[in-house]
Specification:
It contains 5 helices and 17 strands. The chain is an alpha+beta fold. The strands form 4 sheets. Strands 5, 8, 9, 10, 13, 14, 15, 16 and 17 form a 9-stranded mixed beta sheet that branches. A 4-stranded antiparallel beta sheet has the order 2-1-3-4. Strands 6-7 form a two-stranded parallel ribbon. A hairpin with a 7-residue loop joins β8 and β9. The protein is elongated and about 65 Å long.
């Protein structure tokens, strides 16, 4: 097994982050500074920043949180309320897979599993994400077609799948496979619309289900 994969399975870092730590000389294996691409063998002693990493499988924790509007997805809210205030202190070391902006609500996945973090967030994995979006005015048919075919943004083409949820054409289910910064908001804004509500309901196989606003569900302990 490659060392970066072992680190991802035994810490909160992804394989890419583990490689970065190795290249920075922060990982020591059996008393020697580790090299990128180096293998890990059973019984090896691994230190990260001088602290030994357990050789037993780290207990994987996954938390599904129903984020309310006005909360931020960071540990330091800089004056705003943070999602970490909604979970117990012993879970504050978990990292967020796919952040939501302050004005959005819905499903936030937190975990200590570096591999899962990478799988849910890296564009190459094409994980499905679903949202319920409310618009300020009805979405015109030509703009619905444009969004499904792809809208050009400054960072590339944005292609979303849309399903109408109400007869007024204000409310839509939006499905995407990427997750660039504020991509859904920027896509609609490019066509002259303002999103008045954005609520995430799904990330890959994780669903918000019946989790109440501001509450969480722990899938493993």
């Amino acid at each position: 097994m490659r060392l970066n994969k072992w680190l991802a399975e035994h810490s909160r870092y992804s394989r890419r982050a583990a490689d970065a730590l190795i290249s920075q000389g922060k990982v020591v294996i059996n008393g020697q500074t580790a090299l990128v691409g180096q293998p890990y063998n059973d019984g090896d002693t691994v230190l990260l920043d001088g602290k030994i990493i357990s050789q037993t499988n780290a207990k994987k924790i996954v938390v599904l949180l129903h984020k309310p509007v006005s909360y931020v997805c960071s540990r330091n809210g800089q004056g705003a309320q943070t999602v970490y205030s909604l979970i117990p202190v012993h879970l504050h070391s978990l990292d967020i897979a796919g952040r939501l902006d302050k004005d959005s609500s819905g499903l936030v996945v937190l975990t200590n599993d570096g591999t899962l973090l990478h799988d849910l967030t890296h564009p190459s994995h094409n994980k499905v994400k679903e949202y319920i979006v409310g618009l300020d005015v009805p979405l015109a048919s030509q703009h619905q077609a444009a969004i499904q075919q792809g809208v050009k943004l400054e960072d590339g083409l944005s292609k979303l799948q849309l399903v109408l949820l109400d007869a007024s054409k204000h409310k839509w289910q939006v499905t995407m496979h990427e997750g660039r910064n504020r991509q859904i908001r920027r896509t609609f804004e490019a066509l002259g619309y303002t999103i008045v509500s954005l609520h995430r309901t799904r990330m890959d196989n994780y669903l918000i289900g019946t989790i109440p606003t501001g509450k969480f569900k722990q899938l493993s302990a």
